[in-house]
Amino acid sequence: MTENAVENFGWTSPEEVHSNSYIFPRILSLVQGLGVKRILDLGSGNGNLCSKLSHAGYDVVGMEYDRQGVDVSRQAHPAIPFYNLGVQDDPGSLLAKEAPFDLVVSTEVIEHLYSPHLLPQFAARVMNSGGYLIVTTPYHGYLKNLALSVAGKWDHHHGPLWHGGHIKFWSRATLSQLLSEHGFKVTGFSGIGRARYLWKSMALIAQKT
What predicted TM-score, i.e. pTM, was given to this entire model? Predict the structure, then answer.
């Protein structure tokens, strides 16, 4: 582990994890409405979403800071390019090998970052003019936070003992502000999983300005 990044999240299998089962179908639905072709999965984990996007007909590239995740992805999906890069790295190193993207997707990554502004900055650098960014992260709003407190689930939800776990807790307003401050205009919001205002996660769609 370096000073500000956990290098190993424990990726050992290309199989879908629990959160993927409700997040990925929504991602595929959102992507279909954008009319894009070339996609970067920023924080691609074990390559599962890249595989689904590729099978749906998109030109996909994966980028993952966890070396083991990249190895698992390359072995399971040899036709898809995967790069061992993080948002703190030079976007030019990716563009030296890949053409710019129409869309950057990042699922359940930004809550793990010490410097979350690096994510939209990196995305903006590697996408075409007018390109899109979709970011998902656990949802936090007043009613959900209250429900967690009443149910005695606050410690479990935040998981402070999880090595490499969540260190940023986003609301729709704070995530929208972050994207707006770093070159994007938010164009859509979608709650994901569970009942309205108690969503498990949320997705923001933003366009490069």
Answer: 0.91
